[in-house]
Structure formats: structure tokens, C-alpha cells
Design a protein that fits this description.
CATH superfamily of the largest domain: Haem peroxidase domain superfamily, animal type
Number of strands: 13
Pfam family, one: An_peroxidase
Structural class: mainly alpha
Protein name: Peroxidase
Strand order of the largest sheet: 1-9-8
GO molecular function: heme binding; metal ion binding; peroxidase activity
Number of helices: 22
InterPro entries: Haem_peroxidase_animal, Haem_peroxidase_sf, Haem_peroxidase_sf_animal
Bound molecules: protoporphyrin IX containing FE, calcium ion
Keywords: Heme, Iron, Metal-binding, Oxidoreductase, Peroxidase, Signal
Number of domains: 2
Largest sheet: 3 strands, antiparallel
Amino acid sequence: QNCPFAQKAFYASKNMDRARTRYIDELNPPDYDLYVTEDHPGFEVWAEGDVAYPFWDDFSRARVLLTTTEIINHKMFFKRECEDLSAYTKCFHRSDVCYDTFCLCNECNAKSKYRTMGGTCNNIGNPKLGAQYSAYGRILPPDYHDCIHSERRSAISSEELPSPRIISNILSQYISGAEQPDNQTSVLNVFGSIFGQLITHDVGSRINVQRSVPFCFRQKYLRRNFEVNEGLFSFLFVCFLPDVAGPGIQCCSQYYTRRLSEDISHPACKPIDIPTNDTFYGQFEANCLNFISSQTTFSSKCEVGPAQQSNSVSAFLDLSIIYGDDLATQKRLRSKKQGRLITNAGNVLPEIPKCPQQPCYFLGDPRLVQTPMLAQWHSLFLRLHNLIAPQMSSNDETAYQEGKRLTTALYQRLVYNEWLPIILGEAESRDRQLSCDPSKENCGKYDPSVDPSTTNEFAHGAFRWLHAFIPSTINLYGPNKELIMSRAFSDMNSSQVNILETNYDDLIRGTFYDPINYGGWSPELRNRMMRDSKGMGTDLFSFDINRGRDHGIPSFPDLLSYCTNSSTEINSWTDLDQYFTPATLDTLQAVYSSHRDIDLLVGVLQERRSTERSTLGPTGICIIGLQFRQLKYGDRFYYQWTDGPHPFTQPQLAEIEEFSMAKFLCSVTSLTSVPTNSFLTPSATNPMVSCASIPKFNFALFAK
Ligand code: HEM
Ligand SMILES: [Ca+2]
């Protein structure tokens, strides 16, 4: 009697098995033979990435639940309003669908001194929270047009929202309140912005739907060990790999003149239309930008319900970008001596031996070679680990684990006590209990009720705001700030990572001297990102908008209301008066047919700033602040907690608080002077300091 539609539920449940087979067919349509080639705009984003085998099994089982949701919604309700499906969840519990592929939930050891790879067992009561391949979290329920997975539409007319490229063209020139500062003021430098990208990659990595997925199933009775994360499975995954593999799905015709019609395009296609009068793409006669929907997975409770996207990395700020998310990667990266990680002759990054084409660097996250600047940030942490680990113990395992633990603690200290106060403002960062000095005050404690998952609104909305501030040019400077090299951003791509071998310090100087770009979106990212040989690239702003819609992220006004505790009711354009300047509001009104349609990132970039020259306004600060709160209070291993399984002592914590970005740079590079606060451009208030004057970090305090 608790299952009001038991019979219909049973009927839908039977369909689930068919859905699973259909899913496999759907991903490999027999006549579909259009794929992106290497010289395709945005190729790097569309190339198929690595997903560890067993997780494909999660995806296909999750698809069963999604199809069931569709059946319930359409067959039982025959209407468009999103129904509350909670009554059905108990009718659909199927142990053959909802088993754990990778989380050894009964085997967490609460006393274990170290984090697991992949973030499982951080929350003992709910071991998958924040773990790799769990779903992105949500601040608000998703807003899909069909309630399940299709892109949001206009709130008043149910018509399609304006093409992201039209919005990008109209709203990219001007970022509200941001003005290029004078040389007297210190602002976030390019170096500090790329640290933001590094954090991004630590907490999130969505996956494109791929055309050739292995079909896996679990063999219960065969006992063999399959190594994933911390444990050993006592069952085997048998996978069949379709023989096609390689580059990803293509949703546009060969010369981008049109989107492929639905009957011949891949089901995961959500291409972006380019308006015919486009001032950049017009020269290529291009009318279509490739775009593939993200892979979805189970909701955290494995219930029927709308689509939830999979996050392939651990959400925790655990430097998974450096150390990897699984034991196999850990093994590949360790030198087995003194706890050190392997590296190449130039001490930049490890390289794949005898690799035929550049770049060949690798580390915990495959995105590291996107630009030399990003690869360099990985290299800095690699060097820090290798500096610390040998000083921790003479035993390789202890040195590795303790080195990893301290490196991660220093990283968290940089995030919370040096970087976030710049991004959110000192007061916001303090008031939201993010930055805090434990040697001077009580910094709170771990709260197991906090869900640390990376939210969709954060990763695929607000935290992409810095994309708008990336400069058009990257400069390299010598020791006396003499210009050594200057490159357009779209030329500073993966083919250039080798400059780290020759110009390591020059690149750091270039990025710390140069401010982020306050002048609005760079054409380098909005037209030429990952360009092909003819100079046609893709548009990151359009991607960001389309991605938000693909993930069902609610519109800006919904999050604005949430952030003001629903005290703000937005029923008309005039209700938005206080949040935007009149000029911005006019532009928004020209683009969107309803005030309720504004895409989240568009609103975050255009809302009035909280303080002068801040890069963020209140809604952006709210979403980003909330995420960092979750990543702090929901992390059992956060470095400041004094009651964890293996806490730092008070003197150790005091030493960690003395660490800074300046000290970091002086310890692992040959630079002789750095900005006092190295995330900010040097100025009278943030002078260059000599490395000789910065006290060395006292590693002896941490040795075992
Ligand atoms: C420096 C140059 C950068 C480039 C070329 C770049 C490019 C990209 C691309 C291509 C994506 C995937 C887009 C999609 O298909 O949805 C992405 C995702 C993202 N970017 Fe950037 N980005 C850069 C810097 C940054 C910075 C500085 C930040 C923030 C501080 C940032 C935040 C993000 C976030 C949060 C995501 C989503 C990550 C996820 O999958 O969870 N990016 N970026
Ligand atoms: Ca992580």
C-alpha cells in the first residue's frame, strides 16, 4: 500500500532491461560514421577520454533508471509538469541495477591515517560522498524542459532559448563593474587565475558521452582480483570493447555549414547554432559548433529521477590532479624511492617514454597539458612533494604518505587562507568561515552531515567566471622583467608545453607580473580556442552557456532567490533593477524573452559587483562560497581539524600557517624574488620580496 502504482511500476521495471540493451545500441548507431578529426576546432575537448572500465557499467545501469523515469513520467502522467517522483523510488529499487561498482562501503576503516585514492570512505557513514564517478551535487533541483534530460526552454513561451553564440556575441564585450586597474593597484595575476583552473580540475571533471563504450557485466562467481581504488574486488568485470575507438562524436556537417539532422546525428548531440551574420565565423561560412552532452550516472541514492552528470574525479581538495584518483595511477607515478614521485631529467614532469608526439607529460589528471601554464602548476606541486617526502621518513611508503599529507595540507592552506580572500574578498571569506588561522582562533570542526560533492551550479555555472578574464596574450619575462616571448593565448596550447624545459622561471614571472584581463572575453577563447590549422576555433563562452543548459542548471534568478534566502521574489524585469545596472538590464532584455531565462553564468558575470574591482557579485560569491564551505566542513581530512584520525599538532599547524605562495615559489624554482602575495600583481602595496628574506619551511617538525 506504500507503493501507489505498483502494477505500473512493475511494467516500467520490465522495460528497464530493454532500455539497457537499447542504450548500448544507441551509442553505436550502425550508420553513424561522422567523427571529429584531429584538425577540428576544439578537438581536445571532443577526443574520447579514458574512463576506467568498471565505471562504464555504472553508466549503462544508470541509464536504465533514467529510461524508467521517462516511462513513468510520460506513460503515467501524460503531461509536462515535473512530477514529484519520490513515491516511486521505493517501487524501483532493483539490486541488480543499484549495486556498488567501486565503493567498498562495508570496508571503510575509520581509523585509517590517510585519504583513500578517489575519495571513498572520507565520509564513513556515506562512503561514496565526494568520491570519483559519483554525480555532481545540486544546490537546486534541475531545470530540464522535459523534467528529465532535455535542455531548458524559455519560461514564458516554452520556445528554445536564444543560441548561446548570440548571447556570447552580445554580452562578451562588457563585464559588469570590471575595469582595467591602474598600475598602482594589485589585482589577481594570471598565475593566480591558473591556480583557479587547477582547483577546478581537482574538484570536477565531466565526461563526454562517447560513441564506443565497452559493454561490461559483473561475473559473480568468478573470483579474481580487479584493482580499483583501495580494495580488491572479489568478482570480475568482463568487458566487450566495440572495435571502433578514437576521436569523438561529430554533430555538425563536414565544413560546419549546418547541424546534422536528428535522424543521422548521434543521440548525444547538442550542437550550437551560429547566426548567419557572425563577424568571426562568417569568414568560414560556419553555422554550427560541435557540442556533446555530458555522461550521466546514478543519483546519490540510485533512485529514479532526472539526469545527473558524472564527475570522474574526487571532489575533495586532495590534489587528485597530482596523485591521481586510483591505485593504478599511484603506482605509475611513484619512484619507489624516498616517497618521491617520478619526474623527467629537467625535473619538470614525468614523460611517457619514447612518446612519438609532443606533449608527453603526464600526472594525476590528463588535462594537465592543455596549456604550459597549467602544466607548470602541476609541476610546482610535483616538486613540492618531492622536496617534502624524503624529509618525512626513510621508509618509502611512510615518506610517500606523509609527503602527500603535508603537501595537500599546504595546498589547502593556500586555497583557504591566501587565494579565497582575494577571490571572495577578505571579509566574505572570513564571515563565511572559510579563511581562519587555527593558531589564533577556533576554526571549527568536521561535520559529517555536509555533502562535499562538487555542485553543478558551481562547476558548470559560477566557477567558470574566470574564463571571461583570461588574457589574449601570455608573456614571458627575464629576471629584470625584460620581455622574452609573447604569444597569443590560442598559440599557448599543448604543443607549447616544452617551453617549461627551457623557460620555466620566465613563464612564472610572465604570469605573476601580468594581471588578468578586465576588458571582457578574449577573442582567443571566444573564437579561437583550440583552433584548427585555418584559424577557426571554438567558443568557450558558448560552451559554458550550452553546458549549463545540458546539465539542467536553473536560471540566474532562481539562484539569486536561493542566495537571498528566497527573500527576493523576481516576478518581472524591474525586480532585477537593484542587481544589474540599467545598461546591462537593457542588453539582457534585448537577448532574453523572459527575465526568468537568464543563464546562470551570464547573470554571474553581469550582476553588480560587491566591491569595486571585484570580479564577482553576490550570487557568484554565494555559490562559490557555499562550495568551498562544503569542501572544508565535509572533508574529514581537512588539515586544520584537530580530532581526525591523524591530526597535525599545534606547532605543526602554526608552521603550516606560515606557508605562503611566495615561500612555495622560492622553495621549488630558481626565482630570486617574488611578489609578497604571489597571487597578486606586484605594486607599492604588494612589493617584490627577495627569496633570501623569506624564512625556510621547517620540515623537521613533521619528520616521523
Ligand atoms: C586558462 C585557460 C582555460 C581554458 C582554455 C579553459 C577551458 C575549459 C574547457 C574547454 C572546459 C570544458 C568546457 C565544456 O565542454 O563544458 C572548461 C571547464 C571548466 N573550466 Fe576552464 N579553462 C581555462 C581556465 C579556467 C579557469 C581559470 C577557471 C576557474 C577558476 C576555469 C573553470 C572551469 C570549470 C569550473 C570547468 C568545469 C570543470 C568540470 O568539468 O567540472 N577554467 N574549461
Ligand atoms: Ca580531488
